[in-house]
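Sharing in case it's useful to others searching the archive later.

Someone asked me privately for the predicted structure of PorZ N-terminal beta-propeller domain-containing protein, so I'm posting the question and my answer publicly. Question first, with the sequence:
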Amino acid sequence: MKKLSIISLGILASFQLMNAQNISSKKWADLFSYNNVLALKEDNGKIIAATENGIFYYTISTGEISKLSKANGLHEVKISAFDYNPQTKIGLVGYENGSLDVISPQGITYIVDIPIATGYNASKKINHISITGDRAVVSVGYGVSIFNLQNKEFGDSAFFVTGGIYQASNEATIKDNKVFSVTNTGLKTHELNTTFPVFSTWTTELAGNFTEIDSENTLAFSSATATYIYNNGVSTPIAQTFANVSDVVVNADNIIITDASRIYSYSNTGTFSGSVTVGEDCNTATKVGSKIFCGTVLSGLKSEDNLIYKPDGPYFNYSYKIRLLNDNQLLVSSGGRADAFNISLSNPKNPGFYFYNGSEWIYSSYFLGNTTTFNILDVIADPVNTNEYFFTNYNNAPGHGIYKMKYNSGSKDFEFVKRYSLDAIDPSLPLNNFLNRPVGFAADDQNNLFASIAFAGDTGILPAITYYDRAADNFLIKYLTGLASNGAQLPLYYENLFWIPLPRTNNFLVYDTKKSQSLSDDTTILLGESNGLPANSEGTVSIAFDKDGDAWIGNTTGLRILPNARAEIQNDPTVEPIVVEQAGLAEELFRDSQVLQVEVDGGNQKWVSIDGGGVYYLSASGEQVIKRFTKENSPLPTNSVTDIKVDRKTGKVYFVTYQGIVTYQGDVADVTSDFGNVLVYPNPVVYAQFKGKVTIKGLAEKTNIRITDAAGNIVHSAIARSGYYEWDLNNQKGKRVASGIYFVLMTNEDASDKATAKIAVVN
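And my answer, the predicted structure tokens:
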């Protein structure tokens, strides 16, 4: 992964280890999946469910559902453990990277890391958390650590190490001032005393491979097939053989055992009291009153009467590319690529694609239990038949090709229509799943549908273009002979041409269909190093066009601009880097960084995603960094954002990653020569509550701004060119203005439109 080299261009937020700043705000929201419920707790009629990327709360009496994620309070994604104490109202969230969030009525505190044993280099994933009073025992790959919830500090740790070999604590609990830990070699115990950290002083109560444990009035633990009740040094098995126990939950008066899709209830003495099934696999379950609630793998929270409760979201979090459709609809492809965009990132969950119909997320039943391996890099609505959809299956396995699906709005489901295999040129050759793998779609201005193909031909050394012949209901392939690249990226149609990054050679392809349905007269233009692409690049990755007609081309080692691209592409043009000055030295913007995506907003500013470097928000020219978002200072799940889209009607920005999607409400909607809906916020500006800049949005493409006090004296003037403006509340002498009412007087470039606003300042 290429890392960003000129970090000084970014706006980096300070990041503390504890009591970290709130990295979320009301501008952020998540589009996470809340289907895979990992842990459940109940507090006075409210069920708290922990999922992969967030927590949701379901109030049984009212049906209300709310959620908590990195977009509104948490500090990470990839939750791996959770527990909550209803008496103290404190919860503890553990993540795969070893960090923790303490959730209390006073707020959320971030604990950046767990204690690590000397010489331990394995996973820091939090395996399990169990809270007893104000203490929690945290299970990790090296053993257990005690965490004080009031002080938010770690106490003693016991490193389960013998002869240099570390043993994981799968789960642990505290009962009667003793820690009980289940490991792959047995049930281990130790009093919370001075010798607790010394592993040689721990006792093995029962040998075996145990994975689950919990305690309240009693203690129960389990292997995959047997559950035991522990009492005064005696482990008594429950008289039931299980198939594959995934969780044991001990409540005040019952023991709940989750065994795949069946949930068993026992008294605290082991007397069987019933079982239920919800028809699908569950990670965990608990009993609230007389009803069982299950944390399912794929459906969220499910009651024993098969009612489902969860926040709406995609089926899985895995995401790669997104398309914004009309009527607030979304299409999300879930595939992935790695190693110079060659290797398919096959996913064992076979995620397919996700569709948001404007009011709810839809997942096709076609993907449920389907044995075909899917790696969907793109999905598009047919511009002619809008209830039909095409997707590319890029996998180098049986079933790769282009698929047609039909959406049934009544059943809210997609039906399989046809697969187009895109076989090689010579039908006498055996089918090679590595060849003719479709990547992404684009439609021209006549609604003709095209797709790019990688590893095309009989030997896989070419890229190709395929055209959808509606009359024949088939895809026709144009093999681009003479080109050195066998890779291809998603194409972009702009000004009668298809612009296609080539990720495996240092080239960029422009494809001209001559606006005819015949492939025989099509021509190509190829850009390479002689045109200014960086010599050390492994290929081009992304393409975007701004409002000036300039092409922004992202490659594996930087960014290049082709001014006036449509006119200049015919003239053997030279693409140019953006050069900025840093400490008196000229620096190339994003040099040696892989530019995954470029997106242009309504004010002609650019959002640029850098592999491993987060997202930069640049001025129209690219010479100024307005904002920088990373996973450390924002709700981004990861610093590699695979796609960015801006809804120009609303200014909302979609950030897509392999770990889920988040949105950011930008300040720039579609900017024209006239004013839109002018809005000032925050307003009033109370210094004790807000110390940032005041934003004025809804401006014209070029806006002349004068800000006056109540007496009409001009205190600030400026020209805004991006659809919005930020005032630092300083006057023309650089000093903060006094408390009072200030008037904002605005005109567009030719003074044909004007707008006014008032700002109240309280110092």
